[in-house]
From TrEMBL:
Domain ABC transporter: 2-249
Native organism taxonomy: Bacteria, Bacillati, Actinomycetota, Actinomycetes, Micrococcales
Keyword DNA-binding annotated: no
Gene3D superfamilies listed in its UniProt record: P-loop containing nucleotide triphosphate hydrolases (3.40.50.300)
Name of this protein: ABC transporter ATP-binding protein
SUPFAM superfamilies: P-loop containing nucleoside triphosphate hydrolases
């Protein structure tokens, strides 16, 4: 479903601020894979997601989604293949639009636009059914402005919207990091449910090592733009947080921030 081959990305080349974010990275995800990504700050985790979504252009290598090379496609063109939830709950929704308007935009992602009825009764019923899954009472607040929702509610809505059109790849960029523990646990459980029910191929970046071990069937560790450790499903089931810390300690110069250690 996803093939990345020899991906290279350097920021500010030829300057004193030059930084190699991805250094010949290669990664393959089969359909239905749920891969969690951990690594120190500056390891290239967000750059990895940005290169898949088309937010940034890579300097070298190829990216293919569902058998189609997408290097030349811009971010809005890749939207038909890629769904994404960001760390900031404010980033995935339009605060001045209502819940149903946000859902309507998500439902049309990647499709041709034209003149026609914005929302039908059938669509509203579908929205209500989808929102009931969140168990947050949002199905009775379709006309509420999204900007009035709490951070946890907005992130849950963003997650629902990202999976709304069954994207070929779902990208989760530390999507629970900005939430309090109770809301983070809710969104984590919703993530597992939405991914499993939709059979979505998913790549999730997280600083929380317990979360990285609990979710998904594969795990990779990044450092300085490379994958330095990978655990398949069988090995991942046997891993513990101390095991991951031991792997970090093998990497010369790698450090973990407090969020990773305490998460």
């Amino acid at each position: 479903m996803l093939v990345m081959d020899g991906i290279v990305k350097t920021f500010f080349p030829g300057t004193v601020n030059e930084r190699r974010a991805l250094a010949g990275l290669s990664l393959t995800l089969d359909e239905g894979d749920f891969v969690t990504v951990i690594g120190s700050n500056g390891a290239g985790k967000s750059t990895l997601l940005n290169s898949i979504s088309g937010r940034i252009a890579v300097d070298g290598g190829t990216i293919s989604i569902d058998g189609r090379r997408v290097n030349r496609l811009r971010e809005f063109q890749r939207a038909r293949y890629v769904g994404r939830v960001f760390q900031d709950p404010m980033a995935g929704t339009a605060p001045n639009l209502t819940i149903e308007q946000n859902l309507a935009l998500a439902a049309r992602r990647g499709r041709p636009r034209g003149l026609g009825r914005g929302l039908t009764r059938k669509q509203r019923e579908r929205f209500r059914e989808e929102l009931r899954v969140l168990q947050l009472g949002l199905e009775d607040r379709l006309h509420a402005k999204v900007g009035l929702l709490s951070g946890g509610q907005r992130q849950a809505l963003s997650l629902l919207m990202a999976g709304f059109t069954q994207p070929r790849i779902l990208l989760l960029d530390e999507h629970t990091a900005a939430l309090d523990p109770q809301r983070a646990d809710l969104v984590t459980r919703l993530t597992q449910r939405i991914v499993e029910q939709g059979g979505l191929t998913t790549l999730m970046v997280t600083h929380n090592m317990e979360q990285a071990l609990a979710l998904g069937n594969r795990l990779i560790m990044m450092h300085e733009g490379r994958i330095v450790f990978e655990a398949t499903e069988e090995r991942k089931r046997r891993l513990t947080v101390p095991d991951l810390l031991a792997e970090f300690q093998k990497i010369k110069g790698a450090t973990l921030d407090d969020r990773a250690l305490l998460g």
